[in-house]
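Handout, section B. The chain below has 259 residues.
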Amino acid sequence: MNQVLGEKVKQDLLKLRLKDMAQALDAALQKAHQQKQGPLQFLAELVQKQLQGVENRSVQRRIQNAQLPPNMSFDNFDWNFQPSLNVQYLKDLQELSFIVNRQPLLILGKTGTGKTHIATALGIKACGAGFRVQFYKLQQLLATLYATLADDTTDEIITRLTRMDLLIIDHFNYIRTKKEYPSLLFDLISACHSNLTIIVTTSISFEQWADALGNPSITHAIVDRLFHHAGVINIRPGRSYRTDGPHAPKIPHPDKPLP
């Protein structure tokens, strides 16, 4: 290959903002020579490298904008750890038809059973499929909505969230609540109902939700709207990664001295 011409082509590709093609050029030329590819086949594969790079960066931007927790994909999910998990149902959910159908999903389980990991992994899958995703912990979501009362921008943030395809509300447990929280959450859920998919993770029962938010009547209305025809992943009897997982602290046998 004419090295001078090759470098010029790379620089021209970079000027055109085709950096993936520029980076792949040398390897593509070598492959084309070894396999005696025609010019069209060579060009098609080089263009494909650019398209793959653009798509990968687009997926990463969606994941970053969704504010999903790190290191919680299905690639590092332990499918054998949780005996109470309906593995087939979870694998079916990865097809993401529940997002297309705007079906809510409730993930039940005690602390440490992997609820957040499952919700996040589904969010990453959704980002990879081109869906718009947003992740909040409940306390963070309610605090964000509450802050909008000061400048009367509540409707704006609710409208922005209704443009998502998937909203993940994590850690619906006992929180530091305010009297406005139940109404704010009700307004959000009402606006999102039938317009997008919501995933909620919780370690407490529906009856305890009323205690957590502090307004039983509004909480019951939230539950009615949120989980009509909802799918459920129930890992309440599951093991805790924090106490039984591979990285859990080892508790010495009572008959053995500490090291």
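Note. The CA atoms of residues 28 and 43 lie 9 Å apart. Compare this with the example in section A.
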